[in-house]
Amino acid sequence: MKTSKVFTNPTILKILDYYKNLWALSYAIGIAHWDLETYMPPKGVGARGEALGRLSTIRQKLFLNKDFVSLIHKSQKINNLTDEEKAVVRMLTRSLKFYEKLPSKFIEEFENLTNKSTVVWREAKAKNDFKLFKPYLTKIFNSNCKMADYLGYVNSPYDALLDQYEEGLTTKYVENFFLEIKNPLKNLLSKIMNAKPARIATQSVAGGYDKQKMSELNDKILKYFWGEYGQNFRLDTSTHPFTTSFSKSDTRITTWYHDRDFARSLLATIHEFGHALYDLQSADELEMTSIAGGSSLIIHESQSRFWENFMGRSESFIDKFLSDMQLAVHSSQLTVDSVYTYFNKVSPGLLRVEADEVTYHFHIMLRFEIEKEVIEGRLEVRDLREIWNAKMKDYLGITPENDSEGVLQDIHWSGGSVGYFPTYSLGTFLGAQWADQMKVGPLQTRPLEGPTFVKLWLRNHIHKFGSTYTLVDLLKKNGMKFDPKVNLKYLQEKYSKIYNF
Ligand code: MG
User: Fold this and answer.
1) How far is the CA of 301 from the centre of ligand 1 (A)?
2) Chain segment 448-487, per-residue pLDDT in tens
3) Distance between CA atoms of 106 and 431, rounded to whole angstroms?
4) What is the chain's alpha carbon radius of gyration, rounded to the nearest angstrom?
5) What span, in angstroms and rounded, lies between the C-alpha atoms of 134 and 312?
6) CA of 143: how far to CAs of 115, 120, 312, in Å?
7) Which residues lie across from 251 on neighbouring strands?
């Protein structure tokens, strides 16, 4: 294998050599997933699900190879490792814990359950019928409880689930975070709702648009952000936008196109670009190792939300692409002002994926509270629709008229993910801290003149390290600590300007 100064320890080199088998298998699984979401004919879903289920079992067997496991155990006792070598041990120890503690029968059954559940969820959502999905959702929550028991925890079983998505994240930490932001956001929202917006978005902004022109605009934006767009990075369409990376020379994102509201397509493209950039700018030496690209979902989401909120929603960005936006909506009436107001409109809505920067976090609080209560055994899945609707009314003053805009709206639970949502809010708050560090954004003096400075800063402070550091350590390395006040201040100042209060 390629030798480099970051990996020199002979045990680590042996580990990385074997790890390439796991990397190759994950690579193939990744392609199969990407294809499933983009180009696979719909009837292929049965065989693809079966194949992916088998592959995940094979991956577990390959990981639990006796020699490999003993190399990992051996590496845990070595003292003089580089930061990257330590990280390899840390990441593999995490995976090993997962594979050793979860019986393979459980992993296989869980994979089958989530494959089936996703299909049923789609049908239930289309029919607005929570009852249809309820038995599957019950099994998914039960399986997650079982998983928490297998993995072990100190205080709450929900801790074990959170830790799968963000290393070391605890229920207590998330509770305190939401406690800190809840009232300031409530106050801000009520000020916004009582204010008359200084400028009102015109109908031409939010209405229908030309999908072909929008797709050309997405290409143009990505080319502007990343010169090698089309060479080592591509964009496709899927039912829900996502990012996947096979290597730093082959990173892929998807976006979506709806019948109205071009902002959804544009901001989704920029959001996913933020994720992609992390992988594209990870150091060459980390390729094909267990620490290539980012593994902390909070750091990852801080990247996507930074690009979406601070680049995509900025006046200078809108100014740059205004004529393309005019083409997409067939209206020369569009102005920087009207688009800016529209991109930054605050309005309580039923759907998380459409939520603005202020109301977004209430959607996450609601999900966090529900997940925690079910996992800790104080809430039954059969009551979720009622609880959901009551919390929606409490937080945002609105009630879903049907399940597809309520409890059935997200895909996460059907795919087995419980404990994922909090990383969205935490990541968004962290995104504002990076902007603050770079001194870019609507309240800063440094104008956001193109992506060059930002990309370089992010590469040097975050991306090049891949998964070398945990969230806490990366912040420490940058002389920072997680501080929700930064985003609260940004929101307060930005929206008091837009809404004139
Ligand atoms: Mg994201």
Assistant:
1) 5
2) 667 999 999 999 999 999 999 999 999 999 999 999 999 9
3) 36
4) 23
5) 38
6) 14, 17, 39
7) 233, 245
